[in-house]
Amino acid sequence: MNTALIVDDSAVIRKVARRILETVNLKVSDAEDGETALALCTEAMPDVILLDWMMPKMDGYEFLTALRASPGGAHPKVLFCTTENDVGAIARALHGGADEYIMKPFDREILMTKLEQVGLPREAHAA
Protein backbone atom coordinates (compact mmCIF):
# COMPACT_ATOMS: atom_id res chain seq x y z
CA MET A 1 0.00 0.00 0.00
CA ASN A 2 1.33 3.43 -0.92
CA THR A 3 1.66 6.02 1.83
CA ALA A 4 0.94 9.72 1.97
CA LEU A 5 1.89 12.49 4.38
CA ILE A 6 -0.17 15.67 4.61
CA VAL A 7 1.78 18.62 6.00
CA ASP A 8 -0.44 21.62 6.69
CA ASP A 9 -1.07 23.86 9.68
CA SER A 10 -4.81 23.86 8.88
CA ALA A 11 -6.69 21.00 10.57
CA VAL A 12 -9.49 21.44 8.00
CA ILE A 13 -7.14 21.00 5.03
CA ARG A 14 -5.56 17.95 6.67
CA LYS A 15 -8.97 16.40 7.27
CA VAL A 16 -10.24 17.06 3.73
CA ALA A 17 -7.04 15.79 2.11
CA ARG A 18 -7.01 12.70 4.35
CA ARG A 19 -10.57 11.80 3.33
CA ILE A 20 -9.72 12.13 -0.35
CA LEU A 21 -6.47 10.16 -0.12
CA GLU A 22 -7.98 7.37 1.99
CA THR A 23 -10.66 6.80 -0.66
CA VAL A 24 -7.90 5.90 -3.11
CA ASN A 25 -6.21 3.30 -0.92
CA LEU A 26 -3.40 5.41 0.46
CA LYS A 27 -2.26 4.97 4.06
CA VAL A 28 -2.27 8.54 5.36
CA SER A 29 -0.47 10.33 8.17
CA ASP A 30 -0.35 14.06 8.82
CA ALA A 31 1.62 16.80 10.52
CA GLU A 32 0.82 20.41 11.35
CA ASP A 33 4.31 21.75 10.69
CA GLY A 34 7.53 20.94 8.89
CA GLU A 35 9.45 19.90 12.02
CA THR A 36 6.89 17.23 12.89
CA ALA A 37 6.71 16.12 9.26
CA LEU A 38 10.48 15.73 9.03
CA ALA A 39 10.46 13.54 12.15
CA LEU A 40 7.73 11.36 10.59
CA CYS A 41 9.75 11.05 7.37
CA THR A 42 12.77 9.90 9.40
CA GLU A 43 10.63 7.11 10.89
CA ALA A 44 9.05 6.04 7.58
CA MET A 45 9.49 7.85 4.26
CA PRO A 46 6.11 8.29 2.52
CA ASP A 47 5.50 7.83 -1.20
CA VAL A 48 3.76 11.17 -1.63
CA ILE A 49 3.67 14.38 0.41
CA LEU A 50 1.09 17.16 0.22
CA LEU A 51 3.04 20.15 1.48
CA ASP A 52 1.68 23.50 2.60
CA TRP A 53 3.99 26.43 1.98
CA MET A 54 3.15 28.82 4.81
CA MET A 55 3.50 27.12 8.21
CA PRO A 56 4.89 27.98 11.64
CA LYS A 57 8.20 26.59 12.97
CA MET A 58 9.46 25.32 9.60
CA ASP A 59 7.84 26.49 6.38
CA GLY A 60 7.32 24.33 3.32
CA TYR A 61 10.50 25.44 1.58
CA GLU A 62 12.66 24.72 4.63
CA PHE A 63 11.00 21.31 5.01
CA LEU A 64 11.48 20.50 1.33
CA THR A 65 15.17 21.45 1.45
CA ALA A 66 15.72 19.29 4.56
CA LEU A 67 13.68 16.41 3.10
CA ARG A 68 15.60 16.29 -0.18
CA ALA A 69 18.93 16.34 1.72
CA SER A 70 17.93 13.46 4.03
CA PRO A 71 18.49 9.73 3.39
CA GLY A 72 15.65 8.55 1.12
CA GLY A 73 14.43 12.11 0.76
CA ALA A 74 14.58 12.04 -3.03
CA HIS A 75 11.93 9.28 -3.13
CA PRO A 76 8.65 11.01 -2.18
CA LYS A 77 6.64 12.84 -4.78
CA VAL A 78 5.98 16.27 -3.29
CA LEU A 79 2.86 18.22 -4.19
CA PHE A 80 3.29 21.79 -3.00
CA CYS A 81 -0.10 23.20 -1.89
CA THR A 82 -0.63 26.95 -1.80
CA THR A 83 -3.13 29.77 -1.90
CA GLU A 84 -0.41 31.88 -3.49
CA ASN A 85 -0.74 32.52 -7.19
CA ASP A 86 2.67 34.15 -7.28
CA VAL A 87 4.55 32.58 -10.19
CA GLY A 88 7.84 33.27 -8.40
CA ALA A 89 6.80 31.28 -5.33
CA ILE A 90 5.63 28.39 -7.50
CA ALA A 91 8.88 28.45 -9.48
CA ARG A 92 10.89 28.53 -6.24
CA ALA A 93 9.00 25.47 -4.95
CA LEU A 94 9.49 23.51 -8.16
CA HIS A 95 13.14 24.51 -8.36
CA GLY A 96 13.55 23.55 -4.70
CA GLY A 97 12.45 19.98 -5.33
CA ALA A 98 8.64 19.93 -5.44
CA ASP A 99 7.29 17.68 -8.19
CA GLU A 100 4.04 19.55 -8.79
CA TYR A 101 1.81 22.18 -7.19
CA ILE A 102 -1.86 22.44 -6.29
CA MET A 103 -3.79 25.64 -5.69
CA LYS A 104 -6.04 25.73 -2.61
CA PRO A 105 -8.85 25.04 -2.35
CA PHE A 106 -8.60 21.74 -4.21
CA ASP A 107 -11.05 18.90 -4.73
CA ARG A 108 -10.77 15.17 -5.35
CA GLU A 109 -10.55 15.52 -9.13
CA ILE A 110 -7.71 18.05 -8.97
CA LEU A 111 -5.79 15.98 -6.43
CA MET A 112 -6.21 12.76 -8.45
CA THR A 113 -5.00 14.51 -11.61
CA LYS A 114 -1.92 15.82 -9.83
CA LEU A 115 -1.16 12.38 -8.35
CA GLU A 116 -1.27 10.91 -11.85
CA GLN A 117 0.98 13.68 -13.17
CA VAL A 118 3.67 12.82 -10.62
CA GLY A 119 3.43 9.13 -11.49
CA LEU A 120 1.64 7.62 -8.52
CA PRO A 121 0.85 4.07 -9.61
CA ARG A 122 -2.64 3.86 -11.03
CA GLU A 123 -3.65 0.96 -8.76
CA ALA A 124 -2.99 3.18 -5.75
CA HIS A 125 -5.85 5.44 -6.68
CA ALA A 126 -8.42 3.20 -8.30
CA ALA A 127 -11.61 4.40 -6.63
Automatic annotation (TrEMBL):
<keyword id="KW-0597">Phosphoprotein</keyword>
<dbReference type="GO" id="GO:0000160">
    <property type="term" value="P:phosphorelay signal transduction system"/>
</dbReference>
<feature type="domain" description="Response regulatory">
    <location>
        <begin position="3"/>
        <end position="119"/>
    </location>
</feature>
<dbReference type="Pfam" id="PF00072">
    <property type="entry name" value="Response_reg"/>
</dbReference>
<dbReference type="InterPro" id="IPR011006">
    <property type="entry name" value="CheY-like_superfamily"/>
</dbReference>
<feature type="modified residue" description="4-aspartylphosphate">
    <location>
        <position position="52"/>
    </location>
</feature>
<dbReference type="InterPro" id="IPR050595">
    <property type="entry name" value="Bact_response_regulator"/>
</dbReference>
<dbReference type="InterPro" id="IPR001789">
    <property type="entry name" value="Sig_transdc_resp-reg_receiver"/>
</dbReference>
<keyword id="KW-0804">Transcription</keyword>
<protein>
    <submittedName>
        <fullName>Response regulator</fullName>
    </submittedName>
</protein>
<keyword id="KW-0805">Transcription regulation</keyword>
